[in-house]
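During the reporting period the student researcher (J.K.) took over the structure-prediction task from the postdoctoral fellow and processed the backlog of single-chain submissions. One of the processed entries is reproduced below for the supervisory committee.
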Amino acid sequence: MEQILELINEMSPYLLLGFLLAGFMHAFIPGQAYSRYLSKRSFGSVVNAAILGIPLPLCSCGVIPTAMSLRREGASKGAVTSFLVATPQTGVDSIIATYSLMGLPFAIIRPIAALVTSLFAGQMVNTFDKEVDAHQVHAKQCEDGCCCGEKHESFLHRCKEAIEYAFVEMMADIGKWLLIGLVVAGLITVLVPDSFFEIFAGNSFLSMLLVLCLAVPMYLCATGSIPIAVALMLKGLTPGAGLVLLMAGPASNMASILVIRKVLGGRTQMIYLLSIILGAIAFGLGIDYLLPREWFTSSLVATAECCHEGTSIFSWGCTILLVILLVNALLLHGHHHHHHEEEIVAQEESVAIYHVEGMNCNHCRANAENALRSVEGVEDAQVDLATKEARIKGNPKVEDLKKAVEDLGFTFVS
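J.K. obtained the following structure tokens:
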């Protein structure tokens, strides 16, 4: 427990700042900006997708419906693949958190690695997926202009939206996985012998393969992977292998792999996986053999020494605030949202209930709601993340609802 508290105290000021910056990006950058420049089958669209995706605080499950929405709005397969590879690896929150625990070199190299691997993946899809435009899906135009037009809201309203997104919605999405990452890091610190990784001392490549076998299929968010990487490196894992974990863990999991195959095809899926694996190994070997190890280990030593020297009142204050916000986001807000939906159903008798499978976070839920609301005949749609229920008011065709949901990579059950 002591190790977990030390890690939280070290990260909490940076996490709060990262969440806040992510909230303001969400509130002040128009949503159409993320699809307007991605439609062409060109390297320029791939670059745009990577640059737009890198600062976004989306996890590897939340990025899937967002990417599928871009696909529905006309983004090319290459651009969508670039977005899928770049976005979950990093974000404004995880970059700041990486700096707090792992130092400036890791904080610089991590987004660079995300950029390079995403550009490679997107361009490979453009080059080798010859049917990239055969199934191009275009966005439906909103007849009343409410979906496609940009909202004109006051500055104070956008600030309120930023705060709510940062400290409620976003914390509800990644808070659970962040806590899991901290707990796992604490367990690694306590249970793994200091000599465990000595068997890989002369074989950095073998240690990277081991990390890849564990990281690719499992779910790790970009921020939650940081304390795990720190704990493993303090036990002797090389900095390059630590970067492999930071890249491959957030960028992929079994759910995203299966959805990509279903929506974008098997060839794109293989390019997606190979780009992540080859890119992670290449950057990992580059760190271990081309750059001074002191760049990456000095911050870890400083972190360990800081933990033993005690924690400032400011850090404890940030930790207490972070815990309060997490409790509110994970428990109180989730209950309130569910209760609000029950009230809506109670007020409306003509509400049809369906199920949407495959959602894992509030980004998934929001994308499913937006897709359902865009269907002709739908007056309103509410989706519950916990029960997977979609409550539809109106008189739409079931096949249209099914298509809207499955275009995002989810499963619609009538």
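The committee noted the following: Residues 2-311 form one domain.
J.K. will present the remaining backlog at the next meeting.
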